[in-house]
Amino acid sequence: MSSPYYQEDVVAYRSLSTIKGLEWRHLKKKCRSLRLETACSRLREMAMISNVGRIMWHIELLMIIHIILLLSLLRDVVLVSLVPYFVVMIFTPFIMIGSMQDDVSSTVHKVISWLMAFFLTFMDIFSDVLGAIHRGAAYPIVPSYDHLVLLYIYMALPIAFFKGYSAYILGLSVSVVYICFVLYMQYLNDRISFALLGSYAIYLFILNLIFSYFTVIRDYGIRRSVLSRYQLVYQNIVYQTVMKKEKALLESILPRRMVRTLQEEICNRIEDQDKNITPLMSTSRKLFLEPYPEVSILVADMVNYTHLTTTLEAPQLVEILHDLFVNFDLAANRNRAMRIKFLGDAYNCVAGIPNYFPAHASCCVDQALEMIQITQEISNRRNLAINLRIGVHSGEVFAGIIGHTKWQFDTWSKDVDITNHLETSGLPGLVHVSQQTLSMLDEHYVFIDGTEKARNDPILQKAGIRTYLVSSRLPDTMEPGELDNDYSNASISSYRLSYSGYYEEIQIKAQREMMKEVEQMTVGHCFLDCKRNRSSKKNASSEEYLFNKRIHFFLVVFRRWKTEWAFHNQPDLMMKYTLLVMFCAGLAILSINWIERADYFDLYVMFGILLFLLILCFLAGYKKLRRQCKRLTPMTQPSFFLTRWLLRISERIEDSLFVRVPLTVVVLLLLYVMSSQVVPNWSWVLLMPTCTTKSPMRNALDPGR
Question: Domains, the chain, ranges and CATH?
Answer without folding.
Answer: 288-494 (3.30.70.1230), 551-595+599-677 (no CATH)
